[in-house]
Structure formats: C-alpha cells, structure tokens
C-alpha cells in the first residue's frame, strides 16, 4: 500500500521542524515507518540548491528565477526521496513543500500564478500531500523564536524580509487553508510545543483513522 504524505507549512519559527520531529516519534511508536525530510533540500541535489537560495545568492536574479530554483530542488527531492518512500509504504513528513512556493514566490514575490502552477505540476506530479498542516502564529512570535535559535548568526534571505511581508505570508497561508479544507488544516501554533503537538495529532489521527492507544485499550475491553 502506498504510504502517506504529510507536509508542514507556516511562517518563520512557526515550529514546523519541531512538530515534524514530534509527529514522527508518535507514528514510529505505533510501529510505522517514517521518513522526515525538508525543503528546500532533502536530497543531495536539492541541498546544493538550498545553499544558493538561502544565502541570498539567487536574490539578484529575481523571484521568477528563485521560483524555478525552488522547483528544481523539489523535482530532485520528489523523485529521489519522496516518491520512492511512498512507493515502499512509508510515511513521509516534510518540513515545507509546494505551498511555500505559492506563498513566498507567488504572493510575496508576485510571480504569476500560472507560472507557479506550471512549476508545481512539473516538480510535484502525483506526489500531492494527503494532509498539509499549516502552523499559524503571529509573525512577531515566529520571528522572535527564529532569532532566539539563530543567536548571533545573520538572518537568512527570507527571514530578513519586513514584518509587513511576514504578515502577508501568514495571510496567504490562512487563505490556502480556507480554500483547500480537504487537504489542509490550520493549527494555532502560538502555544507550547507539546500543546501544538496534541492539536496536530488530533488532526492526523482523525484524517488517517488512527486510534490513540488509550482508546484502543478501551475498545479491546468492550
Ligand atoms: N522557501 C522555502 C521559499 O521561499 N519557497 C519555497 O518553496 C520553500 C520550500 C527555508 C526558507 O525558504 C523559504 C521559506 C524559508 O524562509 P529554513 O531555514 O528551512 O528556510 O527555515 P524555515 O523553514 O523557515 O524554518 P524555521 O527554522 O525558521 O522554523 P520552524 O521549522 O518553523 O521552527 P522550529 O521548529 O525550528 O522552531 C524554531 C525555534 O522555536 C522553538 C524551537 O525550539 C526553535 O528554537 N519552538 C518553539 N518555542 C516556543 N513554542 C513553540 N511552540 C515552539 N516550537 C518551536
């Protein structure tokens, strides 16, 4: 049976990596095979492109070139990591995916939606997420978390955008969640990580009909 594909999306410091890790632990504890990965990156070719994008080296080329580079990285990642894992029945949890291009390059970079859609068709193909968890947090909170973790290092290409830009990103993610409720769930990510993880789990368990161990025991006792 084909595996399950879950993507995590949201602004800077929303807690995507943290929630990918916590959900992977939970699924593995149930005996499921889980692959965790991220974008941009996740495969050797895509990781090389990640450096070009996040260092800001591609910024002078403009948002269209950046969108094409994100798509090139995704194409390699999908074909060499995501598709093979799904074909083997594994669960794939990915920190950012195609919605990031829609939002950062499409909305913030003003790249024509027809171009974004065409790139998505080429790079994603049939590897569409079964579920996308959009972690929603005010940009002030997310950026403060990211800055705390970064310490003295300089912010990357996208973190360095204005607060107003980050507010637009948040609104764009919320709009996707509203437009595609069959694929997306919006989770309030302002609370502590364990609290957010419980909300994420509730959605995952419902979407994939996974019962919690407590409930399994209760059912077995009937
Ligand atoms: N991008 C990406 C595009 O423009 N287009 C695309 O198509 C794609 C795929 C990637 C950048 O590339 C852009 C978007 C991004 O700007 P990145 O370095 O991979 O950059 O970084 P991000 O994906 O933005 O992720 P971050 O590392 O900023 O944040 P996360 O993963 O959302 O958050 P996380 O879990 O690492 O947590 C950040 C800090 O906060 C703490 C953690 O311990 C950590 O210190 N934390 C919490 N603190 C309090 N409460 C919580 N609930 C917390 N959750 C985590």
What is the element string, with H for helices and E for strands?
Answer: EHEHHEHHEHHEHH
Instruction: Say which molecules are bound, naming each kind only once.
Output: P1-(5'-adenosyl)P5-(5'-thymidyl)pentaphosphate
Helical element count?
A: 9
Kindly, what is the distance between the CA atoms of the first and last residues, rounded to a whole number of angstroms? 30 Å
What is the CATH-assigned architecture?
3-Layer(aba) Sandwich
Give the radius of gyration: 18 Å
Can you tell me the CATH class?
Alpha Beta
Main β sheet profile: 5 strands, parallel
Query: What name goes with the CATH superfamily?
Result: P-loop containing nucleotide triphosphate hydrolases
Query: What is the number of domains?
Result: 1
How much helical structure, as a percent, in the residues? 55-70%
The residue-averaged pLDDT reads 95
Strand content: 5-15%
Uncertain ranges: none
Which fold name fills CATH's third level, the topology? Rossmann fold
Main sheet: strand order = 2-3-1-4-5
Anisotropy-based shape: globular
Estimated structural class: alpha/beta
């Amino acid at each position: 049976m084909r595996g399950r594909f879950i993507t995590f999306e949201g602004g800077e410091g929303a807690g995507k990596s943290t929630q990918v890790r916590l959900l992977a632990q939970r699924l593995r504890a149930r005996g499921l095979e889980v692959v965790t990965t991220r974008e941009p990156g996740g495969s050797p070719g895509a990781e090389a492109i990640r450096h070009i994008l996040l260092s800001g080296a591609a910024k002078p080329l403009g948002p269209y070139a950046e969108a094409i580079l994100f798509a090139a990285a995704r194409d390699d990642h999908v074909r060499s990591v995501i598709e093979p894992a799904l074909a083997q029945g594994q669960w794939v949890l990915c920190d950012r995916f195609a919605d990031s291009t829609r939002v950062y390059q499409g909305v913030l970079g003003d790249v024509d939606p027809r171009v974004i859609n065409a790139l998505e068709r080429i790079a994603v193909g049939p590897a569409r997420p079964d579920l996308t968890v959009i972690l929603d947090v005010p940009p002030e909170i997310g950026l403060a978390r990211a800055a705390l973790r970064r310490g003295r290092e300089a912010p990357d290409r996208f973190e360095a955008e204005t607060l107003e830009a980050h507010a637009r990103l948040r609104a764009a993610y919320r709009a996707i969640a509203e437009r595609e409720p069959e694929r997306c769930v919006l989770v309030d990510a302002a609370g502590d990580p364990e609290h957010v993880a419980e909300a994420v789990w509730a959605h995952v368990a419902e979407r994939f009909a996974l019962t919690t161990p407590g409930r399994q025991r209760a059912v077995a006792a009937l």
